[in-house]
Amino acid sequence: MTKLPLVFVAFVMVLCFESVGLAAPITITDSIFFHDDGITFDPLTPPDTLDAWGGESVKWLEYGSDQLDWTHKFAFDPPLAQILSGSFSVLIVDDEDDREAKEWGIVVGEDWFEPGGPLLHGEINTGAYVCGITASYLADGSYQVGVTSLFGDFMVEESTLRITYEPVPEASTIMLFGSGLPGLALWARSRRRRTRT
């Protein structure tokens, strides 16, 4: 007779742990790769866009105020409850052939004017430039990034956006969890009554 309640309690605990697992944070990664004539991106995500560029090549930023602007687009699936963090990185390659000249540029995100917003400027060398993002700018499913060459030339190879968020708990999971609690309380009550008699 005691095996049945123990099985029931174990079943309820499994459901409780499952509901906690479904609410675990999710990380979205969206990458754009730049080429001379355009961009490529993951075909399973919403299409990213190339907003503006100057010069003959998309990825090659040449001397003096050449620019490249793009928009990362993404979908929150399962739906968004709260954004925990966000960042983007831009992989830049300096051609290194012009060792006498220094390359200078600016990397910005759409929230660059916020306190502590993503604004990097100065000498450009080969490497990934990483910036944090103000979470409220990610809720609409898109994020704009731009790079400008102030002096010298360099190439933009890749941009990667990472967002970590908490999903909305599923209603069915909450109902299962909620229905298990009264059952557990009834079982505990009946057990107490049995021990008194």
Describe the overall structure.
23% of the residues lie in helices and 43% in strands. It has 197 residues and is an alpha+beta fold. It folds into two domains: 3-22 and 171-196, no CATH class; 26-167, Galactose-binding domain-like (Jelly Rolls, Sandwich), CATH 2.60.120.260. Strands 1, 2, 4, 6, 9 and 11 form a six-stranded antiparallel beta sheet that branches. Helix 1 (3-22) runs antiparallel to helix 2. The longest helix has 26 residues, at 171-196. The radius of gyration is 26 Å and the shape is elongated.
Features:
197 residues, alpha+beta, 5-stranded antiparallel sheet
Helix content: 10-25%
Shape: elongated
Structural class: alpha+beta
Report Rg: 26 Å
Strand content: 35-45%
CATH superfamily of the largest domain: Galactose-binding domain-like
What's the CATH class label of the largest domain?
Mainly Beta
The CA-CA distance between the termini, in Å, is 16 Å
Mean pLDDT: 83
Q: From the 3D coordinates, which CATH architecture of the largest domain would you assign?
A: Sandwich
Q: In DSSP terms, counting alpha (H) and pi (I) runs of 4 or more, how many helices? A: 2
CATH topology of the largest domain, which one?
Jelly Rolls
Largest sheet: 6 strands, antiparallel
Return the string of H and E elements: HEEEEEEEEEEEH
Low-confidence stretches: none
Number of domains: 2
Tally of strands: 11
Structure summary:
This protein is α+β, with helices and mostly antiparallel strands. A hairpin with a 2-residue loop joins strand 1 and strand 2.
